[in-house]
Amino acid sequence: MNINNARFEKGAVKPEQYPDNDIPEITFVGRSNVGKSSLINALLNRKNLAKVASKPGRTREINFYNVDDTVYFVDLPGYGYAKVSKEVKYAWSESIETYLNTSKKLKMIVMVVDIRHTPTDDDKMMNKWLVNSSLPYLVVATKMDKIPRSKLKERLLDISGTLKLDSNTPLVPFSAETKEGRETLMNYIVSVL
Questions:
Q1: Which residue, 49, 89, 153, 174, is the most exposed by fewest CB within 10 angstroms?
Q2: What is the rounded CA–CA span in Å between residue 102 and residue 96?
Q3: 18-30 pLDDT, tens per residue?
């Protein structure tokens, strides 16, 4: 997939704010601070298109990135961030759930986890929802450049086992720094478009 033009199109909270067209969507979901925005930037070969924050919980809207007018990369707010009010958590949760349950253009969900950490209960709950949704999805383990190469297999087995991934669910190790895993992930994305 050659990317010539990628741009932020809009942030949305409610369905009536989503883009009103037939462009398919690839959606990125995961805990706060696992590297969703960095992943999107790396896939699009852009440094600062998706805003990367050092503090978790900064993405508060559903952000739509238009890629060559052929696909949207959709960045959902991170779940599981403890240092926000219950009201904010509820609003984010409701926004994410509404989007996932109502988008008719959703072609694939990319669940993002940090390779350095065992998936949380929130991750397990999201994975269970994805399994039951019948939507195509895969899991990307980001920040692989932050662990020794010798630990890669061990970390992937931990993630796969904790999430109870079946053999049909791809688990892609990825580094936004080196772009290792980019081609594999882009091939999965292209396959559903």
A1: 153
A2: 10
A3: 999 999 999 999 9
On whether residue 126 sits in a domain, the answer given is yes
- Residue 59: the pLDDT is 52
In a domain, 57, yes or no: yes
Sheet of strand 71-75: strand arrangement? 6-12, 62-67, 71-75, 25-30, 106-114, 137-142, 171-173
pLDDT of residue 56: 47
In a domain, 1, yes or no: no
* Structural domain total, the chain: 1
SS3 of 4, please? coil
Domain of residue 187, CATH code: 3.40.50.300
Q: What percent of the chain stands above pLDDT 90?
A: 63
In this prediction, residue 87 carries a pLDDT of: 60
Question: Is 41 inside a domain boundary?
Answer: yes
DSSP state at residue 170: -
Domain span at residue 62?
Answer: 6-192
Q: Which amino acid is at 178?
A: T
Pairing between β-strand 25-30 and β-strand 106-114 as defined by DSSP bridges:
parallel
Q: Which two tokens stand for residue 59?
A: 């993405």
